[in-house]
Amino acid sequence: KCGAAITKKRGLQAYDPKLHLAGIPMGQRQLTPYTISGTDIVCDG
């Protein structure tokens, strides 16, 4: 109810998650391994 009231007040259009992160929907990104500079440590990000 609160979200609908804010939408009416501000005149916002429907939320489109593809507008964020250069078109990649949140929560569906693949993890990419990165090596930390100067070490042999690999982490996902």
Could you please describe the fold and organization of this structure?
The protein is of the alpha+beta class. The chain has one domain. 20% of the residues lie in helices and 13% in strands. It contains one helix and two strands. It has one helix spanning 2-10; strands at 33-35, 42-44. The chain has a two-stranded antiparallel ribbon. It is rod-shaped and about 55 Å long. It starts with a helix and ends with a strand. InterPro entries: Me_CoM_Rdtase_asu_N (IPR003183), Me_CoM_Rdtase_asu_N_sub1 (IPR015811), Me_CoM_Rdtase_Fd-like_fold (IPR009024). Pathway: One-carbon metabolism; methyl-coenzyme M reduction; methane from methyl-coenzyme M: step 1/1. Its EC number is 2.8.4.1. Pfam families: MCR_alpha_N. One of its GO terms (molecular function) is coenzyme-B sulfoethylthiotransferase activity.
Q: Biggest β-sheet: count, sense, barrel?
A: 2 strands, antiparallel
Order of secondary-structure elements: HEE
Instruction: Quote the average pLDDT.
Output: 72
What's the β-strand tally?
Answer: 2
Uncertain ranges = none
Q: Report the span from N to C terminus.
A: 36 Å
Strand order of the largest sheet: 1-2
Rg, rounded, reads: 18 Å
InterPro entries: Me_CoM_Rdtase_asu_N, Me_CoM_Rdtase_asu_N_sub1, Me_CoM_Rdtase_Fd-like_fold
Pfam families: MCR_alpha_N
Domain Methyl-coenzyme M reductase alpha subunit N-terminal: 3-44
Pathway: One-carbon metabolism; methyl-coenzyme M reduction; methane from methyl-coenzyme M: step 1/1
